[in-house]
Structure formats: C-alpha cells, structure tokens
Amino acid sequence: MVLHEVECCDTVEVHEDRVRDVRAHMPKEDELYDLAELFKVFGDSTRIRILFALFEAEICVCDLAETLGMTQSAVSHQLRILKQARLVKSRREGKSVYYFLADDHVRTIIDQGLEHVEE
Q: Per-residue pLDDT tens for 66-117?
C-alpha cells in the first residue's frame, strides 16, 4: 500500500479571520454526529444495492431477495437499518409489505456519490 504524505505549512501561523469564519458556519456537534451516522448507513454495498433496486420500483421483501440473490432474512435485516435511518418507508397491502424510498433526497445522495466515484 502506498501512503501519500500530506503537505503541511513550513511555519505555524494561525489566520484568526479564517478560523472565525469557518467556526461561524460549522454545524452543531450533534448535527455532525447524525450526519456521520447517516453516511455509515451508506457504507454497506448490500444496502446500496437495495437502494438502487428501490430506485426502479416499490418492491416487497420476497421480490427484493430474488432480485439481489439474497435470503429474505438478510434483506429484512438491511431494510430495518435503512428504515431506522429514514431512507426507506414501507406500506402493507394485504399480506405483502412493500418498500420504497423515503424521499427524493435519498436518490440525490446516491446520484451525487456515484457521480463522484465516476470522475
């Protein structure tokens, strides 16, 4: 593995005006924590695959498991995590439960991430 060195200043000089400006625009610690937790949810390729499937259609666990080549139990576990993160929602229709994206923000986040990795 190749480690890349990070360049540093040759001298220590704090630019108080920049520090003040950055601090003034920094979100609160609890918001940063919540954001980091949200991005952890995106850190699993199975959950990303589920989200991509939900881009195409509202789908039940049985169909989702078949689509992804997974067990229903494994899919249900990942859906529970996605639901707790408020990325997906569900609705019951008779004996079936259908899952769908919670809102357009989910698609935007994934699209932005994909665009970044494709650069």
A: 999 999 999 999 999 999 999 999 999 999 999 999 999 999 999 999 999 9
Q: What is the secondary structure of 45-69 as a DSSP string?
A: HHHHHHHHHHHH--EEHHHHHHHHT
pTM for the full predicted model: 0.83
Enumerate domains of the chain plus CATH numbers. Answer: 28-118 (1.10.10.10)
Determine contact, residues 83/90, Cβ cutoff 8 Å. Answer: yes
Q: What is the CA radius of gyration of the chain?
A: 20
3-state SS class at 39: helix
| CB contact at 8 A, 107 and 55 | yes
